[in-house]
């Protein structure tokens, strides 16, 4: 039986495959119809039982089970073993070129020495960490007032880097009932708009890494460290697709402990403005403790909390926080000192009494870090590649970023590049609306119970964003059914797909180079036999893939049926679908693998026609001799042509099915995770898949798909990185690698003479070129 024989007739017509349960692919509808009450909720639930081959909710419940894949890679729990590097106190002078006409320059190196901008950066940092992490804690700058890091007053930074004079950052820090402090927009904000460029109060980086194509996630709060590593996404990066674009966390990416940051906060030299910022952040800890909003995991001394409150509080605005090392006049008493000494002795610091002594400091700092710090195994891979510098794992404290509260429907996204953290609007925000990021990373694309459990466990608060509110109104049994479906998709179907993908990977290897060397015997096989082996592997994988396809189709039937019973707004419906994302991505992944398996199988038959074996030749000659003159060759030709047309048509339909599924995933990413690296990766994947499709199946529909895909990729890139139209700060990571610092372990590192300057944001063309490069590296 050939591989295609596994498909039932409806599937050949674009319908559903036969499942391993032997039911018709449209069976769930029959079951639904057979239930008393037809389509009511109970009927749906009982039909669900019929369709799930194994119990789908275990003792622990779905919300505890689904993130298991993510939990396999805990972050920031094990200190890194870093190559020892020391950063003695030093002064570096950097010259870089200023804005006009600079947008297309890819290498910061090219910018050095040209006219216009000169910034003097004094870097004083902790000396020699035992673990070799780099600590970038105290950077103070002065210089040209038209630049972000050189503003004399520190008040107009955002105007300066966006070039919009007179319109100070369109954000304000306010108290938000039930959440503590938060950030609101003072005017309407649009996706892609740069909102803040934040410098860290402290930053610990791991050693330089070369990007390796695997998925990344946008920065998540440290409290969520166990959730931020996303499971390998079938539709997203890490997939085996030839159109795959995975460009995230370097594989060597290791975790850095919170303790490393705490210890750097203790070791860094402190001046009063920075102490004020720290005290300001610490107030958040105390507030959350006193309101019970977010109980810290340790009790803090009542005296310290009371002292901070009675100090009248430290009132800072966002501009004080975006660059904590550039906040104007240090107090007279503010000679460099340690945090403990500064907090207990510095009279100019309102929050000085927060610390009762060095003994408490570590605890307090730990609480500040826990509540406010952010970390990932890598900073942004695309920007690093664009600017020609390596990636670093990191954990850092960016005070302005720390003021952003969470929403499951975020309208802002954070991107870390070197030591800067950029905040960009990723969904429209009305004037007065709160600007929120997500703390959940990829797991924000999951059902409410899962999101809620993660936020409550890691951050100790209950999200009441509009998406959560809408999902709360879903009847309980339905919500349970949906959670079960998600769990089925991620716990059972995705592993099945992974196994099939592994088999196909082997088959691609065998068939791919056409001259496969057998590892054990060292015997080189012919192209034809290798392709035949590939076809065999594809044929072996197909039944499992078709089974998954059938199960996914049934799950979708159930979900869509039940979703249709609720009266939801289009936005709410999109959010519900986003919460079922694992099911959508399972479908896309499955469609992709089936497309590949069929292509492998059919190319094998083509290959054997091209290179018939001696036996085939003999049979063929015999047939010709016996045939009526002129008849058989013609019949054969017609048959072969028909077969080929059928095959191409089948491949086209399967490929379109894959593209449709991917397109939906992309839409959902845009609805609930816009501007995330997952969103960008998926957009790149979709773009590449559409381009591959149109190359294989030329025609107006393919062309249209490819155009649409490119637009969507540009939108995703624009949301995360800007459109290149505005001037922005290109990152000052050069400050980490100033004169005298050994950069030999960081190939391509930005050297002292190339400390970056405000430049035009990367253009879309630049970003697309880099994306393509990363993709080629992966292939
Ligand atoms: C990084 S801080 C954000 C700033 C914080 N509101 C403050 O005043 O310091 C994170 C904490 O803010 C609170 N928070 C953030 N998002 C929230 C939300 N959607 N609902 C309730 N509290 C939230 C929680 O206490 C959380 O642990």
UniProtKB/TrEMBL annotation:
Q: Which CDD domains match?
A: SET_SMYD
Name of the protein: SET domain-containing protein
InterPro entries listed in its UniProt record:
Gramillin-biosynth_MTr, SET_dom, SET_dom_sf
| Segments of this protein annotated with the region Disordered | 115-151, 209-246
PANTHER family on file: TPR DOMAIN PROTEIN (AFU_ORTHOLOGUE AFUA_5G12710)
Source domain of life is: Eukaryota
Limits of the SET domain:
169-440
Q: Which Gene3D superfamilies match?
A: SET domain
Q: Where is the composition biased (Low complexity)?
A: 135-151
